[in-house]
């Protein structure tokens, strides 16, 4: 199916949903929020589909699912346990089902199409990160939200994790004084990191590169923690490991003649979920989930480093590694009165090498709805200038997705959208823009071999202070 038939130009306002009539002597039963989703890949079907329906089915209902692949959208419906109609025509779904909220989980480079059309057709929108992949699309989204008066929410779940929130709390209290600089290093292991190069994410035109698809997560955390906005980015990056940097290659793992000697061989058929969504439906659109990580068409960077200047004077040094033996991150905030250090999943950090199944680490970390394990904790170290000993702050470690952030974000969006938000967890289009614009600026900095100003990209003017937390 051609995209021009999948996404048609129109404008339609969706009607409101009324409460059900009350029975004699009983309070009225409020109608469930009407949700639709476009893009039924793994992220949409699992995180925004089945998880939401399972946990908030008393408050929401899916009234439509849409995907350009007819087989995949039916597989998604089955996996979710939904009862709604499925569509391959986005406009048709929106007209027929009139959702109040549209969830956008399509390929990154098409987010803007469905965000804008969803707003124009009368729905509020929840978009998976990144909000979009280039500055032109970003500007178009900002203008559409202003024009329609509708609201866009960006799914920055990392903010909601207790570990991340505790760091935010300490910074809000000026625990180390006025911030001067930040060092932030993120490591993807060879299992999780390589998976981006198997999929459409390895093509810059589709993902915006990992500067945008992956690092937008990290840039949003930085913007939120620092409580300021970026003004300029200088970056370096290259493709040194994946892509054409190998002596042999294939098209996809299942048919590759080199599978016996390739350390990155991946058998997608062992994953029943991906098999049902992707492998069984390749005939509809030709997309396969087990692409060769050595494909010559891969053009994103696998080694990245950036320096980010903020409007409040803070300078950030950031790096992303995509082929590390272990997965995790470390960060340091340097203030005029001291330093705050923290990390996650660095296996030797506590002095004893912690044995972790790196091959399955990401899948296990994404498992939803696990409870706190009281015997485990994340650690934040604060050391004041001239102090003899640092302070160790232990934060209970949660096992749910993104350190417990996934469930907390869903709760705020679907169960109690009016709950108190003292740390400014909710993210909208400005947050989505400022995070992806750092990645876009980094990508352009490499291509142009110069510093890129954020004001070159959209009409947003960076704020030195993002505003008092509500």
From TrEMBL:
It holds the Pfam family GFO_IDH_MocA. Residues 1-19 form the signal peptide. SUPFAM superfamilies: Glyceraldehyde-3-phosphate dehydrogenase-like, C-terminal domain (SSF55347), NAD(P)-binding Rossmann-fold domains (SSF51735). Residues 168-452 form the Gfo/Idh/MocA-like oxidoreductase C-terminal domain. One of its GO terms (molecular function) is nucleotide binding. InterPro entries: Gfo/Idh/MocA-like_OxRdtase_C (IPR004104), Gfo/Idh/MocA-like_OxRdtase_N (IPR000683), Gfo/Idh/MocA_Oxidoreductases (IPR051450), NAD(P)-bd_dom_sf (IPR036291), TAT_signal (IPR006311). Keywords: Signal. Residues 34-156 form the Gfo/Idh/MocA-like oxidoreductase N-terminal domain. It comes from the Bacteria. PANTHER family: BILIVERDIN REDUCTASE A, BINDING ROSSMANN FOLD OXIDOREDUCTASE, PUTATIVE (AFU_ORTHOLOGUE AFUA_4G00560)-RELATED. This is Oxidoreductase domain protein. It comes from Haliscomenobacter hydrossis (strain ATCC 27775 / DSM 1100 / LMG 10767 / O).
